[in-house]
């Protein structure tokens, strides 16, 4: 009998965390590594949010909280949904968790039974399929290629749904492609869902505030109010507020699902960190004016990286309208051999050789379910991005 849980056989460790770790190790050995793997902003949490956390500590807000979050924060989340998304929720329909990751995990653990299927467009955020498997469900991966901007079409969604489909996981703007669905594009998908009343939507809106070129964010329950009763709207403070380490995410949806998630949370982490909850309260209720300048900076970096990558032999990089990722295609590099002698048969070979030979850490596309590509997180300095592009261009020019 195996000591370790057989559930572990169904999952693999997060490849994005593995790449970041490998880059850190190489840097610690003295190598001049440029890490473009980590999915987090490079700027610090704004001061007013830090001050709120310090005040919470000084005021002794250091005890257990209600499992689903402090009432003030749940109220602020309701206000956020009303303000930004025109969605009405009551505190009983809201839960706060330890990061967006735990929101998604709790939701899947709370709802999946063996045989349940979850439709996931690829490229996807690395954790979705493994979380589904861990929770006993089956991911149904639908490849959404570069030809449609990495977005799912209504026909693809229609074809993927079966009587066993429980959830459709939707993420816009997307990690790893940065692609955002317009309200019209989203309406095409929600129309399909209206025809399948047994399918619920888990919408991961983590990158809502990171949008460029006038892109207007939209979320399923807003675009199609008839889906309100079967939508879990997931969001968090990690990305827009540069609070990845504070670990606060939240969701709103039908009370029965929120109550089930609360039950799981009460038997696992008890509650999200009390101090972080007060920081998140300030993030949501406090000034939002730093978001716009950050987006101006991100857009500049996006343009820099897209141009630099498109100048590399064999790489095609579309221009995304959100998040802080690009997902270039490297079909033109496959089958070649690097200067260091590595045969590039897959995007993993490409990423490995790029790290070994040019000290640039990117995440290979297979990790996100669509190849041959890689993901760059451009949430780092202009200098690092410029140098990384130079190295990638050199790496590609040397492929024979
Ligand atoms: C699409 C997406 N969803 C969820 C998360 C998880 O966010 P958090 O750090 O709040 O757990 C991430 C983080 O990278 C993400 O990219």
Report on this model:
By secondary structure, the protein is α/β, with parallel strands linked by helices. It has 2 domains: 6-44 and 290-397, Aspartate Aminotransferase, domain 1, CATH 3.90.1150.10; 64-285, Aspartate Aminotransferase, domain 2. It has 13 helices and 12 strands. Helix 2 (47-58) crosses helix 10, helix 3 (71-85) runs parallel beside helix 10 and helix 4 crosses helix 9. The longest helix has 20 residues, at 291-310. The protein starts with 14 loop residues before the first helix and ends with a helix. 50% of the residues are buried. The mean pLDDT is 96. This is Aminotransferase. It comes from Donghicola eburneus. GO terms for molecular function: L-aspartate:2-oxoglutarate aminotransferase activity; pyridoxal phosphate binding.
Helix-strand layout with pairing:
Elements: H1 15-28, E1 34-35, H2 47-58, H3 71-85, E2 94-97, H4 99-111, E3 117-122, H5 127-134, E4 138-143, H6 154-160, E5 165-171, H7 183-194, E6 200-204, H8 220-223, E7 231-236, E8 249-252, H9 255-266, H10 274-285, H11 291-310, E9 325-326, H12 347-358, E10 360-361, E11 363-364, E12 374-377, H13 382-397
Parallel strand pairs: 1-10, 3-4, 3-5, 5-6, 6-7
Antiparallel strand pairs: 2-8, 7-8, 9-12, 11-12
Helix pairs in contact: 2-10, 3-10, 4-5, 4-9, 6-7, 11-13
Pyridoxal-5'-phosphate binds next to helix 4.
